[in-house]
Amino acid sequence: LSLQTLYTYPENWRAFKAQIAAQYSGARLKIASAPPAFSFGQTNRSPAFLSNFPLGKVPAYQGDDGFCLFESNAIAHYLSNDVLRGSTPQASAQVLQWVSFADSEIIPPASAWVFPTLGIMQFNKQATEQAKEEVKRVLSILNQHLNTRTFLVGERVSLADISVSCSLLWLFKQPYPNVTRWFLTCINQPQFKTVLGEVQLCEKMAQFDA
Amino acid sequence: LSLQTLYTYPENWRAFKAQIAAQYSGARLKIASAPPAFSFGQTNRSPAFLSNFPLGKVPAYQGDDGFCLFESNAIAHYLSNDVLRGSTPQASAQVLQWVSFADSEIIPPASAWVFPTLGIMQFNKQATEQAKEEVKRVLSILNQHLNTRTFLVGERVSLADISVSCSLLWLFKQPYPNVTRWFLTCINQPQFKTVLGEVQLCEKMAQFDA
Amino acid sequence: GTECLALERIWFEKPRYDEAERRFYEQMN
After folding, report:
1. Same domain, A154 and A51
2. Containing domain of residue A30, as a range?
3. Which of A65, A80, A95 is the endpoint of a domain?
C-alpha cells in the first residue's frame, strides 16, 4: 500500500481534517509529527522541505509518487472519497461552501477568542467581547441549519462536517443544542474517534468566563 | 437556458471569480447588482434573502431550480466545468490548494495594505510595512512557482488562475516579472476580458508609495 | 464600490495569528 506522508505538529486541528478523511477513505497515511521524521521549526525550514512546500507551513502532504500538496483543505479533499467530497455537483458545491464557511466565518473570531486564553495573543477585553458575539452569531446560523438536519450536506458525513467540526475543536462547549448534538454525533463516529480520541467538552464556555 | 442569478455589489472581486468561471463554462448568469434586482445593504438584509442566505453575504447564487449557494469559492466551483475544476484527482486538489492560497495567504495582507490607500481603513505605517512584507513574501512564492509554468495548474486556465488573479486585482503592478506576465496572460483571456474589461495596471506599486 | 468593500469581513490580522500559532507550537516542541 502506498506510503503517503502527512507532515504536521501534534494536535493540529488542520491536520485532523486530512486524518479523519483518510479514516473514511481508507487512505493509509503516515503521520510525521515528531523527530526524527519531522520536527516543527526545523524540518519545515529546511531547503528540502521548502522546495516541496514553499510556504513552509503544515499540514503538508507528500504521496509516495512524490506528489506534494499544501493547504489543509486541498489535502483533506485529495485524501477523501466521492461520498465525502459530495457525489453530485450541488452536494460538492455545498461541501465547499461549508469548508469555506469554517475558514472564513468560524476560525477568525474563534482564534480571536481562544488565542488570548492560550496566552499566545494579547488579551483585549473589547476584542474578546466582539469575537464572542461573532462566534455566537455564526454558531446560531449553524444551529439553525442543523435544526432539521443530521449532517451539514445530505444524509451522510461529508468533508463539510469534518472541516466545520475540526474548526470548532478550538471552541469549548457551545450553548447551541443542535450544534452540540451534531458535534457529538460527528466526534463519536469511529473514524473521528480514531483520530481525535476522546474529546473533552468543557462544562462551560471558555474557561476565562469564570 | 436556465436563469441563474448572482447577487453582488458592483466590482466585487469575489463575484468576478464566479462570473469568469461562467464565461468558460457557458453558464448563463444574471448579475443582480443594482436596484431593483438588488441593492447592497437592503436586499441582503431582507428576511427573504436571509432565509436563503443566512449570512447575508454576497456573492450569493440562486439557480432557477431554487438551489442556493453562498461562499464565493463554492459558487465559482459550481459554475465551472471539469477543465476549470481540474480533470484528475491531483489537478483538482492543486486547484483547491491555490484557491485556499488566494484566500488565506494573499487576501489578508493585500487588504491590510490596499484598504488604507482606498480610504476605507485607518492608515498605520507599521501595519502597512508589515502587510507589504507579507505580500512580497507570498508573491515571490507565486513568482517562483510561475518561473516554469504558464498557468498555476497544468497547461490550461483553471479555477486556480481565476481565484488567484482575482485576489490580486486589488494589488497594483507587482515587481514580480513572472506574476505580471502570468497576470497579463490571464486578464487578456477573452473570458476574463468580458468580465473585467480593461484592467489598468498602475505604473508603480500602490499610489501611496509616492 | 469602496463603501461596499468597507463592509467586507476580512481577517486583516491573519498573518499575526499564523505567526503566534507557529511560535506557540514551536515552543511546544
Report:
1. no
2. 4-80
3. A80
Lowest mean pLDDT among A30-34, A96-100, B190-194: B190-194
> Pairing relation of β-strands B4-7 and B29-32?
parallel
Asked if A17 and A160 count as a contact pair (C-beta separation under 8 A), the reply is no
Residue A179 contacts residue A104 (beta carbons within 8 Å): no
CATH code at position B182:
1.20.1050.10
Q: Which residues contact A162 (CB under 8 A, 6 or more apart)?
A: A17, A20, A21, A76, A84, A186, A192
Q: A80, A101, A128: which is the final residue of a domain?
A: A80
Other Cβ atoms within 10 Å of B56 Cβ, number: 15
Lowest-pLDDT choice from A36-40, A75-79, B118-122, C9-13: B118-122
CB contacts, 8 Å: B144 with chain A: 54
Q: Are B176 and B91 contained in the same domain?
A: yes
Q: Are residues C17 and A111, on separate chains, in Cβ contact within 8 Å? A: yes
Judge if B140 and B75 occupy the same domain.
no
**Per-chain mean pLDDT for chain B:** 88
Minimal Cβ distance to A41: which of C13, C16, C26:
C26
Tell me the per-residue pLDDT of B148-198, one tens digit each, with 9 for 90 and over: 999 999 999 999 999 999 998 877 544 566 777 788 888 888 888 888 887
Whichever domain contains B52, its CATH number is 3.40.30.10
Task: Name the minimum distance, in Å, from the CA of B58 to any CA of chain C.
Answer: 9
